[in-house]
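User: I'm writing a tutorial on reading structure tokens. Could you give me a worked example: one chain, its sequence, then its tokens, then a sentence or two explaining what the tokens reveal?
Assistant: Sure. Here is the example chain.
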Amino acid sequence: MYRSLFSGDVFAEMDRLQRQLQQAFDLNSPSIRGYAGGFPAVNVGQTPTATEIYAFVPGVDPGKIDVTLDQGVLSISGERTSSVAGSDAKTTLHSNERFDGSFRRSISLPDESDANGVTAECRDGVLHISVKRHEAAQPRRIEIQ
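And here are its predicted structure tokens:
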């Protein structure tokens, strides 16, 4: 009997294939300015004293997330396990739009970032990473004599 290679939802399969190609070839060029697509979705911004990164990681165990900073590149990696209940040989999956598996996002940080001033906290599916700026790079008011 003929068995289809697709789940039945061609658009979901095309989306899955696009994500796999992006991960395999790193088709995007990440930087502090950001880019669209990928998992986890991130928001990146700056305050006068730090670079703030918010990564949206719903359903990911914080213990399975790895955050590293090496030569000005911040990397967020980990794995999200499948949330499909009863995923055995007898289960027929009609649609699977939620990403599961290994992930990795890298963000180039500005030169004034302080590698010793990094904090990370994960709460309610949102990973907040704060990277302090060197004191010399922070804005300051100069008094006129």
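What the tokens reveal: DSSP finds one helix and seven strands in the chain. Confidence is low (pLDDT under 50) at residues 27-35.
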